What does this fold into?
Amino acid sequence: MGREDMRAGDGDRKQVADQLKTALDEGRLDLSEYDERIQRTYAAKTYADLDGLLDDLPGTVPVQHSQIQPAPSAAPAGTPVDGARSAGRQVAQWVGPYAGVILVCTLIWLITSVSSGHLQYFWPVWMLIPLVLGVAGQVFGDGRGRDRRRRR
It folds into this structure.
């Protein structure tokens, strides 16, 4: 199967469009040439249709000369410490932003309490319940979710 028969995916068209946008932003393309090339990019059905859109732009690699790099394989979890580290990273990915939400809610509670002259009911404590349950599920969970993700 040649390049003229291989269908180009949305990701391939998006990558070429991003490179064209970069060339426009850097002044290597004028607006009319960018418009013409972007229309050809999104109308492309095969890799052969995408060929030539980036050839004359410096700093870009034409699709036919690019090389596919293998993705690094995920090493199997060998020790329980590795599993604990990855669980810790997973928890840290969503605890940080969620802790920010709790902080904002606590500041709102503090401002309303100070402005009213007495302490109001501490309603931000209810925001802690999903946080505690999520951390407990990640730390004390039976690992079925991690095993399911590994199989995919």
